[in-house]
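CO-FOLDING WORKSHEET

Operator: S.A.
Ligand of interest: magnesium ion
Run index: 277
Mode: holo prediction, single chain
Checklist:
[x] sequence pasted
[x] SMILES validated
[ ] output reviewed
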Amino acid sequence: MAPPLLEARELCKRFGARRRLLALPARARGAGVLAVDHLSLALSPGESLALVGESGCGKSTTARLLLGLLAPSAGAVRFDGRPLSALDRAERLAFRRSVQIVFQDPYASLNPRRSIGSAIAEPLALHGICPTRAQRRARVEELLSSVGLAADLYDRLPDELSGGQRRRVGIARALALSPQLLIADEPTVGLDLSVQAQVLSLLAQQSAQRGLGLLVISHDLAAVSHLCERVAVMEHGRIVEEGPLAQVFAAPRHPCTAALLAADPAQLSATLPEAAS
Ligand SMILES: Nc1ncnc2c1ncn2[C@@H]1O[C@H](COP(=O)(O)OP(=O)(O)O)[C@@H](O)[C@H]1O
Ligand SMILES: [Mg+2]
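OUTPUT RECEIVED:
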């Protein structure tokens, strides 16, 4: 059987015990925070998984570990069956292209002095996808249109855009390298309800059109209920429940899942009528 596209095995991340505190006795330094605690998950090509949990439970840290942006304290992330730490240069490049993230705060991840067009073109230039300026411009305009933005936004700066438009720019940038898996960290946070729905349907549409796998991270269960087939529920750095989304939401087995569902009953019954009955 083919290995999963991306897999976490017994992943741990402990924050704390910072270098400048090393002069203190171990007890005074404390044990730090175990943000991710023996977390395992696997994503096959084209699969969509929701990772849900209360704020602070370790979702964004998990995303950064999966992308290799943070080194795990223990455990490993595997891409196509190979640990990230063992990838050679060519494999690492393939990984960087295949797995992309839309960050929680698109404003913080966009350079305020750089035009929207050049932000989206950056990964294309880095990976030598479209070698000439004209090719890059054409590809960026195509990407802008595929996320529902007008081509004339090319020369605008991030602060000239609305929150929803910036979120679309983040998605266009992540799609630029035609990845196999998109990790979306809180894709709807801070957006108006109607714009939330637009961003979610854009993700669903792109995933269907491109056969793109999705890992959607959210504390908002209603947001992921349309998008994902499977759900993993996180609490204190661990996955406490996992399964087909409709089944888990209709009959939660873990109190944490039940509490998350109870926190937003109105939205959920609107999106999952079968779960509410
Ligand atoms: N760079 C960091 N240094 C120290 N602690 C951190 C860092 N990043 C996250 N944490 C801590 O790790 C825990 C999980 O954070 P995070 O992964 O951002 O949670 P979530 O995305 O689920 O809200 C929190 O207690 C947070 O304070
Ligand atoms: Mg987060």
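REVIEW:
Residues 6-276 form a domain with the Rossmann fold fold (CATH 3.40.50.300).
The longest helix spans residues 193-210.
[x] output reviewed
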